[in-house]
Design brief:
- It is built from 13 helices and no strands.
- By secondary structure, the protein is an all-alpha fold.
- Helix 1 crosses helix 5, helix 8 packs antiparallel against helix 10 and helix 11 packs antiparallel against helix 12.
- The longest helix is centred in the first third of the chain and has 37 residues.
Length: about 280
């Protein structure tokens, strides 16, 4: 096969497949939202949630489709732009769309109970601990950029897509743990979540500064590209984390106590989500 034709075919597949997946996700969310409205016309489904999900998918489309996607293969600044969109901005919008709550409202009762049981399972409790979310989403960047892992991942198409998947899933996990409106098992208090958000901000700042100065970095790219990517990470990461902090404040609800005043009741967001389950 002609290598040029093979490259064109791979590029076409790399464009069409993400577009199809994103459209399928949009269609599924709209279907679930319509089903939730039919099951409970009075409560319906918040249109701002749907808008937030659409914004998240749009940000993913910008990151994964031309012209940014081809640029990211040849310029580290393009890669860092992708990283910010896929790993920080899009996850926040997707998490604020409350997809788990939507599932609970749209699924039949038996499936809803199974999903609730899954949310309370041991592995999910461990995975959704802020320390685990921080290590997976933020601290892992040091491993990526200060070891040969970045070169290995971006040098292979499968590795590149696995890297994108890691950015997206870990970003959604951290946003969900910090400010997600969906129910979560034993979500820590606001102070604890702010501490981990502060750690994420500091870690991003340290990594980007080390990257800009060329200390320990293992990125096979021209110095201007690496420094430009470091600046994008520093300033773009700060903006994303400020938005996450704003989302935390906006979604926070004070704990309600029982009549004796001794034992705090579950957060209102959790109670609403479970009580609204069909």
């Amino acid at each position: 096969m002609d290598p040029h034709l093979h490259h064109e075919g791979a590029s076409l597949a790399g464009t069409v497949l993400p577009a199809v997946v994103l459209l399928a996700c949009a269609g599924l969310y709209l279907h679930l939202a319509a089903r939730a409205r039919r099951r409970n016309p009075v409560q319906g489904w918040n249109r701002w949630r749907t808008t937030s999900f659409a914004v998240g998918l749009l940000l993913l489309a910008v990151a994964l489709l031309p012209p940014l996607a081809p640029f990211a293969h040849t310029d580290f600044r393009g890669h860092m732009t992708q990283h910010l969109l896929i790993g920080m901005y899009a996850p926040l919008a997707l998490v604020l769309a409350a997809p788990v709550t939507l599932l609970l409202r749209a699924l039949p009762a038996p499936r809803g109970r199974r999903l609730t049981a899954l949310l309370h399972s041991g592995p999910v409790r461990v995975l959704t601990h802020p320390a685990v979310a921080f290590l997976v989403s933020t601290a892992s960047l040091a491993v990526l950029y200060f070891t040969p892992l970045y070169h290995l991942a971006t040098g292979d198409p499968v590795g590149h897509w696995l890297l994108h998947t890691h950015f997206l899933l870990s970003g959604c996990l951290f946003a969900y743990v910090i400010a997600g409106p969906d129910p979560a098992p034993r979500r820590p208090g606001v102070r604890t979540r702010l501490v981990y958000l502060g750690l994420a901000i500091a870690t991003h700042a340290v990594i980007s500064q080390l990257m800009y100065g060329g200390f320990w970095v293992d990125i096979h790219a021209p110095i201007p590209q690496v420094q430009g990517g470091a600046q994008l990470m520093y300033y773009g990461g700060d903006i994303a984390e400020l938005l996450l902090a704003a989302a935390l404040v906006a979604t926070w609800r004070p704990e309600r106590r029982n009549r004796s005043g001794d034992t705090p009741a579950p957060p209102p967001s959790y109670v609403v989500s479970i009580s609204d389950r069909p």
